[in-house]
Design goal:
Helix 1 runs parallel beside helix 3. The strands form two sheets. Strands 3-2-1-4-7 form a five-stranded mixed β-sheet, sandwiched between helices. Strands 5-6 form a two-stranded antiparallel ribbon. The protein contains four helices and seven strands; from the N terminus they run E-E-E-H-E-H-E-E-H-E-H. The chain has one domain: Nucleotidyltransferase, domain 5. A hairpin with a 4-residue loop joins strand 1 and strand 2. With 146 residues, it is of the alpha/beta class.
């Protein structure tokens, strides 16, 4: 697995108001190459935008990679690193009922099979240059911003 290309990814999602129009952004960096992805939805939630950013970033990789993925979303980080195994065991359900955003969680689970991913949480709005950049890009992607 050490011969896989290394990619660093920063993701963020935004929604204003929540729920409401939302945007997402991802920054992919491999060596000296960089790619920025953004998108939006007219009616969504902040959590959906956080998940969408990660899904779209991983789907943009053309072959299996070793990925360091940085997010300021505890929902995303804890979902992948803590809650996902239980959801799988319970056939994609929470202990007390339906799983929100199941389509995106399943897409992320699929990406786990393709890539070797290490998940990293960074504090939002704390001066991390790349996290601040994807935060700005996600907010700018929100449709009908005033």
């Amino acid at each position: 697995m050490n011969d896989l290309p290394e990619v660093t990814i920063y993701t963020d999602g935004a929604c204003s108001p929540n729920p409401g129009p939302g945007g997402w952004a991802a920054l992919l960096r491999a060596g000296d190459q960089e790619k920025v992805l953004t998108g939006s939805e007219k009616q969504t939630t902040n959590n959906r935008m956080e998940l969408t950013a990660a899904v779209r970033a991983l789907q943009a990789l053309k072959r299996p990679c070793r990925v360091k993925l940085y997010t300021d979303s505890e929902y995303l980080k804890r979902g992948i690193t803590e809650w996902l195994p239980g959801w799988r065991k319970r056939n994609w359900k929470r202990k007390d009922g339906a799983l929100a955003n199941i389509d995106l969680w399943q897409a992320l689970d699929s990406a786990l099979q393709t890539h070797q991913i290490s998940w990293h949480w960074v504090r939002g709005h704390a001066g991390n240059r790349d996290n601040e950049r994807v935060d700005r890009l996600a907010r700018e992607a929100i449709p009908n911003r005033k």
